[in-house]
Amino acid sequence: QVQLVESGGGLVQTGGSLRLSCAGSARTLSTYIIGWFRQAPGKEREFVGHIIWNISRTYLPDSVKGRFTISKDNYRKTVYLQIDNLKPEDTAVYYCAAKHRASSSWDSWGQGTQVTVSS
User: Fold this and answer.
1) What is the DSSP letter of 61?
2) Are the C-beta atoms of 22 and 78 separated by less than 8 Å?
3) Which band of pLDDT confidence, cut at 50, 70 and 90, is reported for residue 53?
4) 3-state secondary structure of 89
5) DSSP for 19-30?
6) How is 31-83 classified by DSSP, letter by letter?
7) What is d(CA 81, CA 51) in angstroms, rounded to the nearest whole number?
8) CA separation (Å) from 100 to 6, 62, 66, 93, 103?
9) Among residues 3, 25, 20, which one has the least CA distance to residue 70?
């Protein structure tokens, strides 16, 4: 099971940008899909995208497409979530998660990193 650690959250003003990091500890991430989620206070957890590690293919839902970008660094075994043009409604705890390509459920979760956007 892969261990994940997020970082990069913080307090930013509306219109700013942040890059969140998700560092994985497995020997290899080549068989995994790494996803990003967020959960705002009082709301359900929301999926905001994933990357299939071995082919670097990303998917982002329409709700965040155009402002969110997912990328990875093979050497650092790290996945990044770049968020541009931040809005107050982006305020949430952001989590990364991992699942094997053949799995239907997210098996490993990071501890989360808080993003707060001030208006």
Assistant:
1) -
2) yes
3) very high
4) helix
5) EEEEEE-SS--T
6) TEEEEEEEE-TTS--EEEEEEETTTTEEE--TTTBTTEEEEEETTTTEEEEEE
7) 10
8) 19, 24, 27, 23, 5
9) 20
Residue 109 has pLDDT above 90, yes or no: yes
pLDDT of residue 89: 96
CB 116 within 8 A of CB 11: yes
User: Model confidence over 54-77: pLDDT tens digits?
Assistant: 999 999 999 999 999 999 999 999
- What mean pLDDT is predicted for residues 33-54? 97
By the 8 A CB rule, do 114 and 93 touch? yes
Residue type, 117: V
Pairing outcome for strands 113-118 and 10-13:
parallel
Q: Is the dihedral of CA 52, 30, 71, 86 positive or negative?
A: positive
Q: In what order do the strands lie in the sheet with 68-73?
A: 4-7, 18-24, 78-83, 68-73
